[in-house]
Description:
The complex is a heterotrimer of chains A (about 325), B (about 325) and C (about 500).
Chain A: H1 2-8, H2 11-29, H3 36-61, H4 69-83, H5 92-114, H6 120-139, E1 144-145, H7 149-156, H8 164-182, H9 184-194, H10 196-201, H11 206-232, E2 234-235, H12 241-253, H13 265-284, H14 289-312
Helix pairs in contact in A: 2-13, 3-8, 3-9, 3-11, 3-12, 3-13, 4-5, 4-6, 4-11, 4-12, 5-6, 5-11, 7-11, 8-9, 9-11, 12-13, 12-14
Chain B: H1 7-14, H2 20-36, H3 43-68, H4 76-90, H5 96-121, H6 126-144, H7 154-161, H8 166-182, H9 185-195, H10 197-202, H11 207-233, H12 244-254, H13 266-285, H14 292-316
Helix pairs in contact in B: 2-13, 3-8, 3-11, 3-12, 3-13, 4-5, 4-6, 4-11, 4-12, 5-6, 5-11, 7-11, 9-11, 12-13, 12-14
Chain C: E1 8-17, E2 20-30, E3 35-40, H1 46-53, E4 61-66, E5 69-71, H2 76-81, E6 84-87, H3 99-104, E7 110-111, E8 114-115, H4 117-131, H5 146-159, E9 164-168, H6 176-191, E10 195-199, H7 203-209, E11 212-217, E12 220-226, H8 232-240, E13 259-268, E14 271-279, E15 283-288, H9 294-301, E16 307-308, E17 311-314, H10 324-329, E18 332-335, H11 339-343, H12 350-355, E19 363-364, E20 367-368, H13 370-383, H14 399-408, E21 417-421, H15 429-444, E22 448-452, H16 456-462, E23 465-470, E24 473-479, H17 485-492
Amino acid sequence: MNAVKAALRNPPLLTFVLVALVWLVAGLTLRGFGAYGHLRYLLELSAVIGIVAAGQTLVILMGGIDLSVGAVITVTAILLPLISPDFDPTGGIGIVLTLAIASGIGFINGAGAAYLKVPPIIMTLAMATFLQGMLVIVAGGSAVSVTNATVIWLGQARPFGIPAGVLLWIAVSIVMLLIIHRMPAGARFLALGANPLAARLSGVSVTRNTLLLFTLSGFFAGLAGILILGMNRQGYVGIGDPYLLTSIAAVVLGGTSILGGRGTYAGTIPGAILLVTTTALITVVNASPGWRSIMFGALILGLLLISGREARR
Amino acid sequence: MSVPANLYLAVQRRRNRGLTGLYLVVAAFLIVYAFLFPGLLSVNGFSKFTQNWFPLALVTMAQALMLLNGGISLAIGPMVSLGAVIAAVTMGGPFGVVGGLLAVAAVGLFIGALTGGIVAYLRLPAIIVTLAGSFIITGVALILLPRPGGFIPDWFSDLLAGHTPVAFGLLVLLLIGWKLYIATPLGLGIYAAGDNPVGAFRSGIPVERVKVVAFAISGLLAALAGLFVAAQTGSGDPVIGTPFTLNSIAGTVLGGVAFLGGKGTMRGAICGSLLLSVMINVMFFLGFPPVAQYVAQGLIIVGAVAIPQLTSQWRAKP
Amino acid sequence: MTNSMPLLEARRVFKGFFGNPVLKGVDIALEPGRVHALLGENGAGKSTLINLLSGALQPDEGDVVVDGHPVSRFSPAAAREAGIAVVQQELSLAAELSIAENIGLGASPRRFGLIDYGKLATSVAEVCERVGLTEPLDMPVGDLPLGRRQMVEIAKALYRKPRVLILDEPTSSLSAHEAGILADLIRKLRDEGIALLYISHRLNEVQALCSHVTILKDGVVTADQPLAGVDNEGLVRLMVGRDAGDLFPPRLEGATGAELINLKKFSAGLARDIDFHASAGEIVGIGGLVGQGQEDFLLGLYGAIPASAETSEISGDRGPFKSVETANAAGLAYIPADRKHEGLVLPHSIASNLLLPSLGRLTKHGLRDRAAERDLVADLARRLTIRGDVDRAVQALSGGNQQKVALAKWLPLEPSVLLLNDPTRGVDIETKREIYLMLQSFAREGKLVILLSSDTPELVHLCDRVAVFREGRVVATLAQSEISEEAIVGAAMGVSTKGAAA
């Protein structure tokens, strides 16, 4: 009984249990759902969302929302093929350059929020719009194919039968859990999210942490962009759009408060899997994009009602 | 003691304070545009120009209401889409154009009031509530009309978006309506409640009701903008409104309405939307690709928010 | 004029917040045609009493009585209907709206549902003339200086044609000329038969205007009498005269060490041109009425708000600090007054609150050293007698224990200068004593303790020196032999008493 109560009070665990239940029920009732290939496919999709949601988790923990992750994904997916130099057969230079650009975009978001005091939602929304326009101007409307060897390996290879993307996600998860739970920065993010004034008076620098946070968010979005590019082998305008909402949803599904100050990436991991699984099931039952959007909005609103009520208590 | 001969006019004149610069910039841009495109001065050119401006002016008014009240709406664009979709779906129905008009207005008011109620009575942040609302509204629009289509009578399109400046006339009517509303106790309460909610409450202003009504009107304006866009394009499109969320914010902050609430004027916001509209037209005329306006908008928003911030920081330095 | 029936009364009202009694059976009766003064030190319960009388709060026990009838479920709206108007210290104005619109807000004349600007203009002009507002009525309130806004606030109250007018520190931001106009107005209103309640810390004004006084001390009425025959010193005695008991530990005589703070013409926020110096081993008190720049002085020292100074030396550094981190690095620590909003991250655990300032120090290879953190938390909890599970959310603790956490979190940094902002507000007696002992032991260890307090006895019994603030400046620095409650309160209110040297 106590174990059940503890689980109910532990959102990450609860989400994990939920995922296990859904997989069990779906595996028993739906043909093909439980096949290894299908589950592996679900995990591959979850990996992408999980990596985007890594940065989003950090931003939401500190009480902001990053609406530019979709645009950053698109930027990396389109830029990488264009800026990977031909003389580098491994493709490593292109990846490093692209990640630097993605982190730089995040840094600018952070600078706008920290120095110009533009609310993060507005800053990242403006950034997303700006990037959308720039991309069409720079890259034109056509899709670009990737030849970068490392990127293709990342998107297609399966060492030991495990997709490389999932391995990358495991690595990201370890880094994220270390940042949030084992590094001073994580505790500072949480304190800033729960009470920025008290955190500042306790010697936590708002400016430095805001910059760090958005830079990390840009970095992780860029990483996800590279993975998506490898899986798709093509980058085009709009490729990152679906990941904005799903990244927010994965974070809040994992029990992180949308108002900041409470949560962990340990919840976002099952959150991403749950989201992909439900999307897959919705596709099975033929829910239209409209219904999906409604369900998503209702989810945010519902979680806001719950966490908002808790925050007021 | 000086009793002004007409207090109302005197107050109105005062509201132009600090907007002279904006008026001059708008005038300069209009002159440049008229110089580039002399057709602007014909009835037809004027009609087309104001038709492009009209939906932008409506959504900017909708957003300005939110900001004046101390909130912000991220659901303006989806609301425009929903308005367009409802118009396109209902106007071919048994109740025709009038039925469609009423349906659009009712849905706009209802969704706005509902959002406002959640924000005001449950005391939740408007920015996230409207973010959630934007997905729900988009979903509804997609279900009603999964792909562009529907029916708008040709005569209706011609009336609103034809060769006569009907849109401009409607805008003038709306402005008169706003003037009347802001002269009611509830309308004036928007300023008071946005600037000093505790003080407004102590003065006997029903702060929550003010907020709900402001959200309802905002929803109505956005939905009507959708109706107009549907008339312009002759059909409904479930995602046509998307750019309007950011457009509305850009126009409002260009017009000098502050993010913190209670500061700024509706006339400033409308000038901001006019400025944005002329800028887009000029850019188009100078041969920039249409997407360049996205770039410009991103820069404009950050600039319009950041520049007052920076200047106040510089001024604060001893 | 007197002996008429009171328009508004409070009868044996009790009110407490979170178990702390603030009013303990208070009576007050406002009669028509009389200016009634309400006096008391900070925290005596004046604001709470005003809030009860204006319906903003409900009494726990006792009645609010209007025209001899006890009212149940009193609310701001009901108070307005009963003709009770309050001029609060925080203004209720909207900066963008004009003077006329602000005055009429919520009570404007209407025609066809619209505000009747014509009628509004004439009726507003009338009240403006009474309070001496000569600015054009269409002027936005945001363009007015603070003192004029205060007059608009008063005009706004008058516009509602009150029978009872409560004025809470109405002259705090007024010029002498404006205060004179207000005094004439108050006399006129009194003669018209309005009941007035006048709260002020300016005793000369009280003497000039009021005929009756109620004095509150620690939530109890200590005097309810005609004002005639009581001089200023007598009023001050009535406000502070209390037995300090053995709440305070005996004073320690210690040698002072090196000078840690030396400021010339230091300004930050409301604090202006402060000359200040203090040395290691001292406890220096900061006194004065609430909101005279004391808090901004501490925040400026701490780098939390922009500060400037002609010359400054803080803890060996040139200062003023540009950020909290540099102040921390120089050995400063700040314990805010509002611990729920400024001092603690309430939903987080006791342990994480205790660790927050020292997070960067307890690391091994860039990762947090869990064992060292656990030891530190255990050590702090033991030293401050915080009992129980340290993983509980800090909001579950009592006020006193919360304050101990807010203090304890700085100890690992071994600060050399401690800035405390009202550390015992809303804290139980026992914890108060613990905090006092702790402050003394800090001083003995050679730290400098700067104690801002709204509790005057605290300053008297703990401090080696007290700087008294008034209108943003230090108006008196009292040496140990000169410190007394009378001297502090007197200097704070601009009454010169013996021992107060400017």
